[in-house]
Write a structure and sequence with these properties.
Layout (H helix, E strand, L loop, with lengths): L6 E5 L5 E2 L15 E5 L33 E2 L4 H7 L3 E2 L3 E6 L5 H14 L4 E5 L4 H11 L6 E5 L3 H11 L3 E5 L16 H18 L2 E7 L11 H5 L2 E6 L6 E9 L7 E7 L2 E4 L3 H5 L10 E8 L2 E13 L7 E4 L3 H14 L7 E7 L11 H13 L7 E3 L2 E2 L5 E2 L4 H10 L4 E5 H6 L7 E5 L2 H7 L1
Parallel strand pairs: 6-10, 6-11, 7-8, 7-9, 9-10, 15-19, 17-18, 19-22, 22-23
Antiparallel strand pairs: 1-2, 1-3, 4-5, 11-12, 12-13, 13-14, 15-16, 16-18, 20-21
Helix pairs in contact: 4-5, 8-9
C-alpha cells in the first residue's frame, strides 16, 4: 500500500493547500508564498468520544434574534471604543497587530485593568512573558482591582480548559504566534499552527460568548505575520501605528464587522502607560513655528472626526541635474503630481528645485483634501512668504488646477473655530453648500491661482 502523505504545501497569503510546491499560488496568484507544513490528523467531529452524534444547530429567522445594548462592553477608553464601534461585542474575535515595542501588550493590559475595575471577569493569557514580567508592567500602569486573572501558557488544549473553568467575559491572548496544539506537528508560529489556533479561539468566542483579543506580530512589510486567512477569520483587525521613539500612537481599524473602519484612536505613551488624546488637533498643532514660510494648517477627516494638522514644505534650489523629492506622512506620488500642476498651470519652474514635504507630528494622512494645503505650502516656501498662522486650508486639486469639493466641509470649519482660527480657504463649491459659521472668515476658491493670490 502507498504510504499516506504527512506533509502538504500551504499558501501564507490565502491558506490554499496543495500536494506539491508551486512558485505561484493557484488560488490568490501570489508568488513565493507556498511553504511546507505537516498535515494535521483529521478526526470525525460529528461523533463524540462516547459515540453519540453531535447536536446540530437549527436555522432561525433574523426576526427571532434579539440585539440588546448590553451586548457591548465599554473598555474604559473612549478612543478604543470609537475604533471598535461603541465598545466590545460579546463573542467577538479581535486581532491587534503592530510593530514590536509599540505598546500592544501595554494597551491590552490597561484595558483589562479597566474592565476588571468595572466588575467584569477577565483572563489574560501570555505566551511570551512570565508572571513576574507582567507584574512589573502592571505596577507601572497602576493598581489592579477586580477579577483579573493571569495565565502563562502556550498549549491551546490547556487554555481551552482554563477558559471553560474560569468562564471569563473577556480573554486576551498574547500572542497568537506562540500558541500551538499537540495534534499539529509543526512549530508554533507556522501556517498550520496559527490557522488551527485561531480556529479554536473562534469556536470558543462564538460558542461561549467570550470576547477574545489576539495579539499578532507584524512582518517588515507591516502586515500580520502568518497566513492572510488569519485576518479573514477574525471579526475586527486593529493596527497600532507610530514610531517607537515618538510619544504618540494611532490605533486604526482595518476591518470591523461591528462598526466603521475609518475611525482612529490617538494615544500618547507616558511613564504610567498609554493615555488617550481626546483632542488630537490641539496635540498635533502644539509647537508650531511663528512667521515661518512653508507651514500651512490643514484639516483631514478620519471617519467622523476632523483632525487639524500642520503641512510643512521646504523648497530649495537643486545642485544637481535632477531635482529631489521627499514626502513624509503623505503620498510621494501625490506630491509629484501637485508639483507638476504648479509647473504647468501656474508656470512655476518646480523642476529646478528640491522639494521636501512633511506632515508634522509623524502621522500619515493620504486624504485628497490635503492637496490645496500642500500646494500653498510649496508656494509659500518657494517665495519665502509665510501664510497667516490663523488660517486653515483644505481642498482637492485636479490636474487642470481646479479646486474640487471635499466631504464634511462644515465639520472641518467648526473644528477650526474651536481652536481659535480666524480664516479658512476652502473650495467655492463647498462654500456655496455650507451654512454660515460664526467666528471665522470663509474664502472660497475655484482654482489654484485664486488660492495663491489670497496668500
Amino acid at each position: 500500500m502507498a504510504k499516506a502523505k504527512t506533509t502538504a504545501f500551504f499558501c501564507k497569503e490565502c491558506g490554499y493547500e496543495s500536494a506539491k510546491w508551486a512558485g505561484q499560488c493557484p488560488a490568490c496568484r501570489a508568488w513565493n508564498t507556498m511553504v511546507e507544513e505537516p498535515v494535521a490528523k483529521k478526526e470525525n467531529s460529528r461523533r463524540a468520544t462516547s459515540g453519540t452524534i453531535k447536536q446540530v444547530s437549527e436555522p432561525v429567522k433574523l426576526s427571532d434574534v434579539s440585539i440588546e445594548e448590553q451586548d457591548r462592553i465599554s473598555t474604559g477608553y473612549r478612543e478604543l471604543d470609537r475604533v471598535l464601534g461603541s465598545g466590545i461585542v460579546s463573542g467577538s474575535l479581535v486581532l491587534v497587530g503592530g510593530d514590536p515595542g509599540i505598546g500592544k501588550s501595554t494597551l491590552l493590559l490597561q484595558v483589562c485593568q479597566k474592565l476588571a475595575s468595572a466588575g467584569h471577569k477577565v483572563l489574560y493569557i501570555s505566551g511570551e512573558e512570565s508572571l513576574k514580567q507582567i507584574k512589573l508592567r502592571a505596577n507601572r500602569i497602576g493598581e489592579i482591582r477586580g477579577e483579573l486573572l493571569f495565565l502563562c501558557e502556550t498549549n491551546l488544549d490547556d487554555i481551552e480548559e482554563a477558559i471553560k473553568k474560569v468562564s471569563p467575559q473577556v480573554v486576551v491572548i498574547d500572542s497568537i504566534q506562540t500558541m500551538y496544539r499537540d495534534d499539529v506537528s509543526s512549530a508554533p508560529g507556522s501556517v498550520s499552527q496559527v490557522r488551527e489556533s485561531t480556529n479554536i479561539l473562534l469556536q470558543i468566542a462564538k460558542g461561549m460568548g467570550v470576547s477574545v483579543f489576539i495579539v499578532g506580530h507584524v512582518t517588515k512589510e507591516g502586515v500580520v505575520a502568518g497566513p492572510r486567512v488569519l485576518e479573514h477569520m477574525v471579526d475586527t483587525v486593529l493596527y497600532f501605528e507610530g514610531e517607537r521613539n515618538a510619544s504618540y500612537r494611532i490605533l486604526r481599524g482595518v476591518k470591523n464587522r461591528f462598526g466603521s473602519t475609518n475611525e482612529i484612536g490617538v494615544f500618547e505613551m507616558r511613564e504610567q502607560g498609554l493615555m488617550e488624546v481626546e483632542n488630537p488637533s490641539e496635540y498635533l498643532l502644539s509647537g508650531r513655528p511663528e512667521e515661518a514660510s512653508g507651514a500651512v494648517v490643514a484639516c483631514s477627516i478620519e471617519g467622523t472626526r476632523p483632525i487639524l494638522l500642520e503641512v510643512q514644505a521646504l523648497v530649495a534650489q537643486t545642485n544637481f541635474g535632477m531635482a529631489r523629492r521627499t514626502a513624509a506622512g503623505t503620498d510621494y506620488n501625490r506630491v509629484n503630481l501637485l508639483m507638476a500642476v504648479l509647473e504647468k498651470r501656474c508656470h512655476y519652474e518646480m523642476s529646478r528645485y528640491d522639494a521636501y514635504v512633511n506632515i508634522a507630528g509623524g502621522v500619515r494622512m493620504n486624504e485628497p483634501a490635503l492637496d490645496l494645503a500642500i500646494v500653498l505650502a510649496l508656494v509659500s516656501s518657494l517665495k519665502d512668504r509665510p501664510v497667516n498662522p490663523k488660517c486653515i486650508i483644505f481642498g482637492e486639486v485636479g490636474l487642470s488646477g481646479e479646486v474640487r469639493a471635499v466631504s464634511m466641509a462644515e465639520q472641518r470649519v467648526r473644528e477650526a473655530v474651536k481652536l481659535g482660527f480666524e480664516a479658512c480657504i476652502l473650495p467655492q463649491v463647498c462654500l456655496e453648500r455650507m451654512q454660515k459659521v460664526e467666528g471665522i472668515r470663509l474664502q472660497g476658491v475655484r482654482n489654484v491661482r485664486e488660492a495663491i493670490g489670497l496668500i
